[in-house]
Amino acid sequence: MRYLAILGIAGLVFASTSAMAINIPNETPHAAELSVWEIYNDLYGTAYTSNVDLDVMRIVDLQTFMIPLGQDLVVEAEARYAYVVSEFGYYTPAGAPTNYQGIFSVNQVGDVSGLGYTQVLNITDEFGFYLDPAGEGAVWHSEQALNWLGDDHMVAYGVDANTILLCWEDLPLPSEGENNFLAAASQMRPADPRYDGDYNDLVVEIRFREIVPEPATMILFGLGIAGVALRRFLVA
C-alpha cells in the first residue's frame, strides 16, 4: 500500500510497499457523461485521447495520506465533477477507521467547480478518503483492503507539484475492465449493466498549500517582538 507524505509545498514525496491490483478506468458508456481523460482535459487544458493515454499521470496505488508534524501545510478538497449524489469525506485512523468525517455532500451533477463543494482539512494523523454514494448502501474507501473484494474505488492522477485529482467509482466493479483487471474474481460478481468501472462518479481536486499568517496575526507577532526588544532595552 502506498501513502502520500506531504513534505513540502514544492513537491510530494511517496513511500510504498508492494502494490495491489491496479486498473485503468473504463471509458464511460453513458453519452451524457465524460470519461476521466475528458474531465482531466477540461480542467487542465491537456490533450489526452483516452484513459490509457492519461495513465502516464497516474499515481499508482495511492491509498492514504499524512502531513508530518512540523509541516505548515493545509489540505484543500474541492469537488470538480460529479455524476451521482454522494458524500465525500475522510476517515481515521488509516487501516482500521473508527471516525468518519464528512467534508461535503454533492447533490448536483456535471461540472460542479465553484459551486461551494470546497473544504479545508486540518488533520495530523494518517488518513484516508471515502465516498458514500446515496442509495447504494456501501461506503468506498481509498484503501482497497477496506472495500468489498479488495476493489480499488479511487484512482489518483498528478496535476502539478501541489495538486492531485481523485476519481471515484460509486458501484461494485465489473468483472472485466480495459485491461481485464478483475477477471480472477468474476465468479463472485453479479452481472449488472450498471457496473461500468468508469470512475467519473465523483472527481475531487486535492490541493496542498502553505499556511500563510493572517495580517492581524503578523501584526501581533511583530508587536510581540517589539515588546521583547523594548524590555531588553529598559533592562540594559
Short account of what is shown:
The chain has a single domain, classed as Sandwich (Jelly Rolls).
Reconstruct the topology from this structure:
Blueprint: E1 2-8, E2 11-16, H1 36-44, H2 51-54, E3 62-66, E4 73-82, E5 86-92, E6 99-106, E7 110-111, E8 118-121, E9 128-133, E10 140-141, E11 154-160, E12 163-168, E13 202-210, H3 215-235
What does this structure look like?
With 236 residues, this protein is an alpha+beta fold. It has one domain (2-235): Jelly Rolls (Sandwich). It has helices spanning 36-44, 51-54, 215-235; strands at residues 2-8, 11-16, 62-66, 73-82, 86-92, 99-106, 110-111, 118-121, 128-133, 140-141, 154-160, 163-168, 202-210. Strands 4, 7, 8, 11, 12 and 13 form a six-stranded antiparallel sheet that branches. A four-stranded antiparallel sheet has the order 6-5-9-10, with no helix packed on it. β9 and β10 (140-141) form a beta hairpin.
Descriptive tags:
single chain; 13 strands; disordered C terminus; 236 residues; 4-stranded antiparallel β-sheet; 6-stranded antiparallel β-sheet
